[in-house]
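Lab notebook, bench 4. The sequencing result for the construct came back, and we need a structural model before the next group meeting so we can plan mutations. Quick request posted to the team channel:

Model the 3D structure of this chain.
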Amino acid sequence: MNIQTYKCPKCDGSHFKRWELPHPLILHWILNPAIAFNEIVLGTRVPKTLLICQDCEESLLDRGYVPCPSCGAMHPGRFASGMRGFRNWRGFSCPSCGKPIPCIWNVFSLLILLLTFPLWSLPYYLYFQKQPLKPLFFSEENKRLTPQPLTKRTWVFMGAAWGGIMWIFVYILPLLTGSGNVPGWVSVFIGLPISALGGFAFGFFMWFFLGRTPSRKKQGEQAVATVK
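Done. Here's the predicted structure in token form:
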């Protein structure tokens, strides 16, 4: 895939940074055992290639695009995450041409699918294989959709959700199953501030790396580097 043939839908630029193997984040998705839960249970899939526009003055999340290798359309990468990113167990298709967009697989997800092959193979080949892939997003009256703008509430909600999930799985479930090392509800109350602090750290981390808008100075340095 030649990224020079793609144009940013917002700034019409052609200076992109390619995220694909062996990019660390893509490699993390493939090798992290916990990602198998996202793929097998939640149906979250990650496109094989993500292009980050280097000319736009927006956050990293708003500069990421999923390119279609068939028709060349550029779709906002945020449509591949969040609530729209769930229930895509078989992957997703391009909203413009309907062709499949290549996605990657976690190695532990593939191992689980291999071990459970007798359970899902027959229903898949008889029914699900014939169903068309769900588009990355559904357009409304042929209008181009844009994701909702990111606000402070986005990162607060993201951190609170992550901290809440950690609190439930690390402290609540062991109490209900009787496998906790600290007796009674003591561990639940101890884990509440710890989970809250962890959620805050996660939300701040996501904002710092994904939600900040690059400074004009950095953009100017990138432009000079591109000219050279």
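The chain has two domains: 1-148, 150-228.
Will bring this to the meeting.
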